[in-house]
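Entry: DUF3046 domain-containing protein
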Amino acid sequence: MRLTVFWERMTDHFGPGYADTFARDHVMAELGGRTVHEALDAGWDAKDVWRVVCTVMNVPWEKH
């Protein structure tokens, strides 16, 4: 998954005002105790990060 698609999905789900805040502030054990930004900076694949976000935040897979 391209980062542009990842950020489009984040914005679609969380809204333009909250997507970056969530990505910057929400630490997830499933990302090794990292935020979305930290996981992406550490080399995690955007698709894997999106799967974690969907699981943790109960985003239905069929919607994305």
